Amino acid sequence: MTFPLRPDDAHPYLRAASAGIRHHTRALALSETNPPKRADRPHLDVLHAHLTALHQLVDRLADSTRPAHPAAGRHLTIAHTRLWQATSEVHSAFHLLPSTTTQAELEACHPEQLPEGPPVLTICQRHLASGHAVRRKTTPTDLRPHTTACVR
Q1: What pLDDT was estimated at residue 136?
Q2: Looking at the predicted structure, is the pLDDT value of residue 31 above 70?
Q3: What's the rounded mean pLDDT across residues 18-30?
Q4: 137 φ/ψ angles, rounded to the nearest 5 degrees
Q5: How far are the Cα atoms of 39, 45, 68, 72, 143 from residue 49, in angstroms, in the given order?
Q6: What's the chain's average pLDDT?
Q7: Integer CA distances (angstroms), 144 to 81, 85, 98, 118, 138, in order
């Protein structure tokens, strides 16, 4: 006989990921002794990976929820689209930040020998793969940012 999990025991990996994000957010908070920490490319790369994984999770949940509960599935589909928009903006921000990698470091790294390619392209490959999945399920109209402002 199995017993239902208490809400605080369910989905331990998601809970751990959420705790990690909360910890990271607190670490970035301003304090009197520390100057504010700015985003850098490695930081945005990790954030992009997290958003992409969350995007895939919401996509699967929307697909499995929609047949039994269409209204809930529609809301999850909208969340899926919003996550894609957030992922796309983080990807754009990544490319607007200056690279801290020197030419000597790039040459010493031998990116051509890495199976995933140069480190700077990892975010692009992840973004392209995620974008391909998004475009199979959405229209360009769905991907446009929505505004709640009244047009007069």
Answers
A1: 86
A2: no
A3: 85
A4: -110, -10
A5: 15, 6, 30, 26, 20
A6: 80
A7: 9, 8, 28, 31, 11
Written as six digits, the tokens of 142 are 């769905």
* Phi, psi at 82, each rounded to 5°: -65, -40
Distance CA 27, CA 30 (A): 8
Q: Could you report the per-residue pLDDT of 86-103, keeping only the tens digit for each? A: 999 999 999 898 877 666
Residues 6 or more apart in contact with residue 63 via CB below 8 angstroms:
73
**70-84 tens-digit pLDDT:** 999 999 999 999 999
**Cα–Cα distance, 87 to 13 (Å, whole number):** 21
Tokens of 24: 């990271």
Q: What tokens were used for 40?
A: 């850098």
Q: Which token pair is 147? A: 């505004």
User: What is the distance between the alpha carbons of residues 44 and 35, in angstroms, rounded to a whole number?
Assistant: 19
3-state secondary structure labels for all residues of 75-121? HHHHHHHHHHHHHHHHHHHHHHCCCCCCHHHHHHHCHHHCCCCCHHH
